[in-house]
Amino acid sequence: MKKIIIMMLAVAMIAIVAVTSVSAAEGHYVWNHPGDGSYTDDPFNESTRVGHDSPLETTIRFKTDVSFSKIMFPKIWATAHAVVKIEMYSGETVVATKEFEMYNEEVGSGDVPNVEVDFGKALSAGEYTMVISVPEGFYAFFAYAADPLSDEYIEYGNGHAVFGLYTTDEGQGFVTFATEVGGGSSSAPAASKAVLSLDAAKLGDLWDNNTGANTVDVTKGDGFVTFTASGDDPFFAFAEPLNPGVDAKYAVVKYRTSGEGVGTLDFYLQIAEPHAQSDKLVTDGEWHYVVVDLSKPFPDNMDTIWDGTIARFDPMSGSVNGASIDIASIEFFTSEADALASTDASNPGTADASVIAIAAVACIALAGVAVAKKVR
Questions:
Q1: Model pTM greater than 0.70?
Q2: Distance between CA atoms of residues 34 and 47, nearest Å
Q3: Residue 220 is inside which H or E element, if any?
Q4: 311: nearest Cα among 263, 277, 273
Q5: Across-strand partners of 288?
Q6: In this structure, are residues 261 and 277 in contact, taking their beta carbons and an 8 Å threshold?
Q7: Mind listing the domains of the chain with CATH numbers?
Q8: How far is CA 328 from CA 200, 252, 257, 267, in A?
Q9: End-to-end distance of the chain based on CA atoms, in angstroms?
Q10: Alpha-carbon distance values, 198 to 139, 195, 271, 325, 351 (Å)
Q11: What digits encode the pLDDT tens for the residues 27-86?
Q12: Each residue of 288-302: b (16+ CB within 10 Å) or e?
């Protein structure tokens, strides 16, 4: 019996150490300047400037040995309500896009500290070009710091800016362009291989230019579009059919919804039938991804030929009046593997599951100790 108790205690100790190790891999920022995001509080010197007396667009090219999902700018001075757009390029492909409005309610201006840009997915370690732009008549100046990294590490279109990458990886952070890097964390999906990407801004444009809508209202949020049903069968038709191509038959939708009354997401090849339908959506109010095979018709006895075009989108098929859904993005892929990789669906909840499993083993072991003592 003593041997059993000793073995159970050993298992419990191993479990505790393992849980501690997993917990230690917490998210943190790696910075491109010394001082963990410290900056010079002067917008009219060597900051990266977009708009005003500078071009409305600038670029920052860098290479990193960690995967990341967010970027932090310690301060941006901007025109009040300026909409700043950031596009992340891997090679010639846009792998992430984000727009955000600059306004500081406390001071009533567009000067905002600690601006965090959440891309909603992890981008793998590698080389990126960040394109920053503002509309005509607006500006955004990005905080800078002393001792910037050399152009062997990072290249700016103008000035230089302090920014950090949010990661759970252990690495140097920013590396020289000549450095060979791996894919970052094995649990982070690779840079998107989407043939066509529709972020919230592009979804909003499609809605603004629609040629017909039925019982659906739309509001634009920060990084997502909210569709609310005002009756049965909410949908809207595109001014021109989307054309991701016949090979790009896998659609990945990032969505969030809660409550009852939201059924599926439907893509129509024409204004009427035929259409493809998603699985039933998760309604827990958290962000989820759903992958839709556009080449599979619904109902399944319909004689449908997927031709690579989409004429209409039903964001809440089978919904009830008042139901709503937030959609952050829709991307189209040529392979199911790439579609799943974009959601990390091929390895869902690995870290959390490991923690739960290890903790469960520890609990069982400790429970066994208690029972053994009681039997004695």
A1: no
A2: 16
A3: strand 216-220
A4: 273
A5: 255
A6: no
A7: 28-167 (2.60.120), 196-335 (2.60.120.260)
A8: 5, 11, 12, 16
A9: 9
A10: 25, 10, 20, 16, 29
A11: 899 998 876 667 877 776 768 899 988 899 999 999 999 999 999 999 999 999 999 999
A12: bbbbbebeebbeeee
